[in-house]
Amino acid sequence: MRKTLxxxxxxxxxxPALAAGITVSHAALRVIAxxxxxxxxxxxxxxxAKPVVLIGAxxxxxxxxxxHLSSSEGGMMxxxxxxxxxxxxxxxxxxxxxxxxxxxxxxxxxxxxxHRETITLEFKSGAARDVTFTLxxxxxxxx
Length: 143
Known about the structure:
Blueprint: H1 2-14, E1 22-30, E2 38-46, E3 52-58, E4 62-73, E5 76-81, E6 85-87, E7 91-95, E8 100-107, E9 116-123, E10 128-136
Parallel strand pairs: 1-10
Antiparallel strand pairs: 1-2, 2-7, 2-8, 3-6, 3-9, 4-5, 4-8, 9-10
């Protein structure tokens, strides 16, 4: 037991803290129906002196979670996986329908019974930020 607590404490110290100047707002997870991927939207702002690079996200309620970018080419919508998303100092990025978004593949059935879910944003530096997402329906209304 003592070894487990020590290991947990060391693991927490090994994860760099994300700078105080990084803010996440308007976090919403759009859930439609069981078995249908959910999409995460939010605003990320970097008010630090250094660039930050978002590389992923995770949630125990998703079988897999990826960063995606939707775009339109020749009238056809297309979605591509994004491995890194740099955010320069003093800049921000908005995750919105038709643009950047998180894709929650294989959502857990329990996800459809809750009103909020914590999603961890992961950064290239090794830092992570837990963000509480409000669950919304297809029209963006809180569930």
